[in-house]
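Researcher: Next entry: Integrase (Sphingobium vermicomposti).
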Amino acid sequence: MVQMKIGDLVSGGQVRTRAIVMQQKTGRPVQFELLPDARASLLAWLERRGGTVDDYVFPSRVDHNGHLSTRQYARLVDEWVTGVGLMRSEYGTHSLRRTKASIIYRATGNLRAVQILLGHSKIENTVRYLGIDVEDALALAENTEI
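Model: Predicted structure:
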């Protein structure tokens, strides 16, 4: 996400409802939805930030031609977590990803959708990632294909 460019999110002066990022680990594209609150926040940020479609959404604080580093992003998450009174040791960039996937799975029961959102090639990896019972999850996934 730190490597996204403004053009990846904006079209015709509006923040898109969906965007695609290339997963660094697998090199595969993963599509995600930008809900109204996120779009409004991004639009406010981009209006303040300025820039062109070729600029990074979140520039480096050191090299403004570069993007925010994953380490700096992790530091920011630590600050946000601490700022709202939570324990830094319990929340991080990866736990937020896992939490969002778990929320979607609990709300929909759609394991295949979570697999696609996470960019996993095998449903078994998604099951393991979510920490759910394999047999129950696979049976449910067969009944909720998207």
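Model: Note for the record: The mean pLDDT is 86.
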